[in-house]
Amino acid sequence: MKFSEIFRMAFGSLGVNKLRSALTMLGITIGVFSVIGVMTAVSALRGSIETGLSFLGSDSFQFGKWPTGIQLSGNNWRKYAMRRDLTLAQGLRYQQLMEAQGASGVVCLTTGTGGLQMVYGGRKTTPNMRIIGTNEHFLVANQYTIEAGRNFTSEDVDLGRSVAIIGQDIVQKLFPNESPLGLRFKARDRTYTVIGILASKGMAFGQTQDGLALIPITRFMSDYGANNRSINIATQAPSQMVYNATVDKGVTAMRVVRGLKPEDDNDFELSSNDSLIASFAKIADVIQAGSLGISAIALLAAGVGIMNIMLVSVTERTKEIGIRKSIGARKVSILTQFLVEAVVISLAGGLMGIGLGVIGGNGLALIMKASVVFPWAWAAAGLIVCSLIGVGFGFYPAWKAASLDPIEALRYE
After folding, report:
1. From residue 3, how far is each of 21, 131, 320, 361 by CA, in Å?
2. Most confidently modeled of 29-33, 163-167, 233-237, 325-329?
3. Domain ranges of the chain
4. CA distance 91 to 108
5. CB within 8 Å of 302: residues ≥ 6 apart
6. What are the residues facing 120 on neighbouring strands?
7. Side-chain half-sphere CA neighbours of 305 within 13 A
């Protein structure tokens, strides 16, 4: 028999029992969907996360009380909670030490609070805005730009002036038809004069980066309290060539301002873009490994289903097989026909799983404002695995059909 004829008969046999074939494909579809969906979402989010994690700026690192990118629970959480806060006085002392060594171009001191509602006249923002206390280096360290107005000066910070630089979300809610420069708005009954407007920065991690108001960090501590509040200290090296040396000097300066002895461990955390991205990569690897494990179980169950349905098909078509063998059909032709049926069921389920997985994964990516991707490598791997499942689990039923004795098969009722 020609291969075209074998394929035609195989597809025709599948069409006879459409519901049974569809249900058999469903197991493959679920297994492939789970892995392709996760891989698509993770691949799309990697690009978004790597872009979003650039908030520290190039050649920058950051000190904080809490580690980033790990889960804190139980004793682990208590370990960090027992640390002393990084105070504003320590941040200013660190800045002086680094500037005295000429070791840094930028030292940005930052703290903040969220869940605030800004008010101007009869207008209000949603109650999820943020107030960030910082210094004049925030824009450079966090890659924001001024659209109108001006940045803080060192005098604004030293004197703790009630001035603010606001993001586009606040501008649109409070000042839709007028320039906010020079106007005053309220947050928690504190009044601030707008001196600058930030250019829109869009979304990161599915959240807006424009719903914030910057105020001098000294004013922030006065208005919202310094007790039980820890600041973050971001440092930008003068160049990539001296980055490692700047990090070493930064760690030394931080140990000095924290009053640590040579034998004491660091009681602060050091993070950078690379460390944050690496932390996410570890989480992504765990998610991918879990997805592969779940998918392997689902595909194994689907493979057993294919074997079962093909054995049923062989039993139902025993007389047909006997007739074909009695008129000259070769063993290899019958074996090929049943193998093709098994592979077609597996590949059809795989293609549906890939399609649904790409749609589902990219749907999540769009919700998180990430770029749409197509995981070509994983899709190709999925099709190969589906083909192997079809051959592996379909071989025994196909071999059993090809090995039937034609006389016994013709007697079968």
Report:
1. 22, 71, 19, 38
2. 163-167
3. 3-51+279-411, 56-272
4. 9
5. 24, 27, 28, 30, 31, 346, 349, 389
6. 123
7. 21
